[in-house]
Amino acid sequence: MASLLIKNIGMLATACGDRAKSGKAQGEILTLQNAYVLVQDEQILEIGQGEPTIDPACEVIDAQGKLVTAGLVDAHTHLVFGGWRENELALKLHGVPYLDILAQGGGILSTVRSTRAASEDELFDKTAKALDTMLSLGTTTCEAKSGYGLDFEQLNVTRRLNQSQPVELVSTFMAAHALPEEYKNDREGYLSLVINRMLPYVAEHQLAEYCDVFCETGVFTPEESRRILTAAQKLGLGAKIHADEIDPIGGSQLAGEIGAVSAEHLIVCPQEGIQSMAKGGTIACLLPATSFYLGKPYARARDMIAAGLTTFAEEPEPTRSDCHAWSASPNYYLLATVCGIVPASPGFGSVLVEPHMGPLAQVSGGVPHPKGMIEVDFKKKGDRITGRIVLPEGLEGTYRHGDRTLTLRSGRNEIR
């Protein structure tokens, strides 16, 4: 018998099947309105529409017409780190390339210094707060890369957190995130340390399931990346690779050649890389918020889907200058703050649209609602905003900007 019933679900949205899909099949989503979910212990027994007959002892949660989905999986984070790099954001907004910042001792190397300076307990406490935020935004599983301490401390913190909080963490060893400053004149010495000493220790003590390398100009070459990742594979670790983020130097081709589990970033991935990943069964993990915050082009997601690749998108957090970790917050805040779409009453019974466009001249977006999509399209000139708001049938609300307030009805509403 079920021990938990979630009822009165406005919209239940769930993926179909039991494994990652590729190509256009990734769009196969089952949606049910007026739905329920029956759970026994930690196993979902049944989903359906209406309200089933249950045992009187069954716990009942009323979803109040809200959206219910499976927990979100954040496929790419550097979760455990010390310090912040907010001082670099101004440099990036003024067009200073990341590789120039790295060459000056900033970027990853700055966070390496801060992470090394922090105690394990300090890193634990900071990361636990981040995980609370991620969970509140729907993330229930999170990949966690090391790569800032360039040692084992981050992996130890990840293991402790896995035992003490509800978000499931999947650990990735990434000592090859940058060449440590103490090894800047001894690349081969550091490669030997990673391959011959660190990787065997990680595998023996089961500190990680995967190994990742930053294959990029000024960081690690494709051949160096191949040496590290094939050594990891021989020890039973899955291979991942940061590839084609800034320059297309061959990382995506390498990913397909060695059968890497995933290649990540891929902002400038060439066609040869797409073909290699498709042939090798490598998942393309795309980071659109990185492109957004750095003002860079977006990865060729549609071309990858057309080639039959499986693609995932990571949703990072905006306060870190390298745009990693903390899950779906930017997607939420772009819609809730920039587009201004938020519930105005319990259960999203009505909507408030109050855009804050800042310096943007145009913005458009949409939010799913149990009754359909809420869509906005705004243009700004000076302090004046014009555009349209489309509400699904049966939903009403309010538009507000400055001192101006308008009543919104179902259908198309013109903002003049």
Question: In summary, what is this structure?
Answer:
The protein is α/β, with parallel strands linked by helices and 416 residues long.
Structural overview:
- With 416 residues, the protein is an alpha/beta fold.
- Helix content is 29%, strand content 31%.
- It is built from twelve helices and 21 strands.
- The protein has helices at residues 87-93, 98-103, 108-117, 120-136, 153-162, 187-204, 222-234, 251-258, 271-280, 288-294, 301-306, 329-338; strands at 4-15, 29-40, 43-49, 59-62, 67-69, 72-74, 139-145, 168-176, 210-215, 238-243, 262-265, 283-286, 311-313, 341-343, 351-353, 362-369, 372-381, 384-391, 397-401, 404-408, 411-415.
- The strands form four sheets. Strands 6-7-8-9-10-11-12-13 form an eight-stranded parallel beta sheet.
- Helix 6 links the parallel strand 8 (168-176) and strand 9 (210-215).
- The protein starts with a strand and ends with a strand.
- Residues 314-327 have low confidence and may be disordered.
Give the SSE layout.
Blueprint (H helix, E strand, L loop, with lengths): L3 E12 L13 E12 L2 E7 L9 E4 L4 E3 L2 E3 L12 H7 L4 H6 L4 H10 L2 H17 L2 E7 L7 H10 L5 E9 L10 H18 L5 E6 L6 H13 L3 E6 L7 H8 L3 E4 L5 H10 L2 E4 L1 H7 L6 H6 L4 E3 L15 H10 L2 E3 L7 E3 L8 E8 L2 E10 L2 E8 L5 E5 L2 E5 L2 E5 L1
Parallel strand pairs: 1-4, 1-5, 6-7, 7-8, 8-9, 9-10, 10-11, 11-12, 12-13, 15-19
Antiparallel strand pairs: 1-2, 2-3, 14-15, 16-17, 17-18, 18-21, 19-20
